[in-house]
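[DERIVE STRUCTURE TOKENS]
===
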Amino acid sequence: ELMAHAYSHLYRIPSTGLRFFTVYGPWGRPDMAMFLFAKAILEGQPIKLFNHGNMQRDFTYVDDVTEAIVRLIDHAPKGQAKAPDATPDPGTSAAPWRVFNVGNNHPEELLKVVALLEKEFGRTAVKDMLPMQPGDVPATYADVDDLMREVGFRPSTTIEDGIARFSAWFRDYHRL
């Protein structure tokens, strides 16, 4: 983000940064939680749950991410004009640069996600409850107010619907 802002400032190159929050869905990265959890449940392997499962993440379904990108494409930043005595706002810049959070703006309990996957696959997960990892945070969620103001969009796929769609794809892809 800093490099993009510097280039936007120096060369007037419009730059839009997107912060994606825990994206999941078909064709996602196999090293992400949803894939790892689904695979572990189906293979009867333990799922590592840090902070003894007391974690929350803002899970964002891939279709919502795609919709946000499509809506933002025609909204190149122009930069903000500032009065000389204006209080600096870290979210705005005189450079043609912006950053948007793309997430559901609603943290979900990790244990709820595991329970939904268990329901979808009809199997019980083996849970390995572990302490908090150094440097991790117990909860994340996206403030999407800027996204809503700019393009009138707020990701809205519920975790229940998203996991049902992901699980159907996962079963089909792996021929289960």
Remarks:
- The helical segments are 2-11, 33-43, 62-72, 110-121, 145-151, 159-173.
- The chain has a mean pLDDT of 94.
- The radius of gyration is 19 Å.
- Residues 2-173 form a domain with the Rossmann fold fold (CATH 3.40.50.720).
